[in-house]
Amino acid sequence: MIEINDMYKHYYIEEEKVPVLDNINLSIEKGGFYSITGPSGSGKSSLLNIIGCLDRPSEGEISFNTRNITKYTTKELAIIRNKYIGFVFQQFHLLPRISVKKNVELPLIYAGLDRRSRKEKMEEVLEKVGLLDKMNNLPNTLSGGQKQRVAIARALINDPEFLLADEPTGSLDMKTSDSIMRIFLELNKEGTTILMVTHESHIAAFADENIYIYDGRISDRKGKVRDEPY
Ligand SMILES: Nc1ncnc2c1ncn2[C@@H]1O[C@H](COP(=O)(O)OP(=O)(O)OP(=O)(O)O)[C@@H](O)[C@H]1O
Ligand SMILES: [Mg+2]
Predict the structure, then answer these.
(1) Residues contacting 198, CB < 8 A, separation 6+
(2) Whose CA is nearest to atom 13 of ligand 1?
(3) pLDDT tens digits along 97-133
(4) Is 41 in the pocket of ligand 1 (CB under 6 A)?
(5) Does the Cβ of 11 fall within 6 Å of ligand 1?
(6) 130 Cβ inside 6 Å of ligand 1
(7) How does pLDDT run across 154-192, given as a tens digit for each residue?
(8) How many percent of the chain have pLDDT more than 70?
(9) Ligand 1 within 6 A of CB of 18
(10) Does the CA dihedral 100-102-103-108 come out positive or negative?
(11) Residue 21 CA to ligand 2 centre (angstroms)
């Protein structure tokens, strides 16, 4: 569970304070599927990055599985991230010169896992996203949807409790987006907590709960939008 209390985020641009998040109070329950929506520039990515331990609040508190991580150093946050969090982005962020299987294995190479365990895990997650047959391909030989599935496999390789996604379907057509959402639903059913930023209402509808951000504030929290997407 992630809990945020009275949280503010601001940046400084040439000594001028730019407020971005304004008094955020939020709890993310284990096993939930959340969408985050709101206009461009409202602070969605900033919030997701703080929840994902990529960034820190300027004021207020954040706790992660009851641990107060507000004052964690960059290094300490990286440990939390590696252990508990998987990230997926709009632009996939795959390394172009190495194969699908190497892209997926990379976090385990950093973690110092032996070759055999890496292979086992890599095959398990690629199978989960239906791409075992593409493991020797280079990323640029894949479609957008396939690239995103590789990125999801990579995000899953450390068995994260939380899967965070920033516009995961932003570069995909509607049908492909749906297939990505099916994977998210399946992962959520297996217990992964999911937080997903999107500006598409039919994508947000896959979540159980929507967090709407306007001008840095949570302005509305709706319950389930629809029982069965589609
Ligand atoms: N590193 C930074 N330095 C200064 N300002 C920033 C920085 N990162 C974000 N901002 C500002 O914070 C505000 C919120 O940005 P954020 O990226 O969180 O918005 P968003 O809701 O994700 O928008 P979009 O839908 O366009 O992705 C914007 O006004 C942006 O310019
Ligand atoms: Mg954004």
Answers:
(1) 35, 36, 37, 167, 168, 169, 170, 204
(2) 41
(3) 999 999 999 989 888 899 999 999 999 999 999 999 9
(4) yes
(5) yes
(6) no
(7) 999 999 999 999 999 999 999 999 999 999 999 999 999
(8) 95
(9) yes
(10) positive
(11) 13
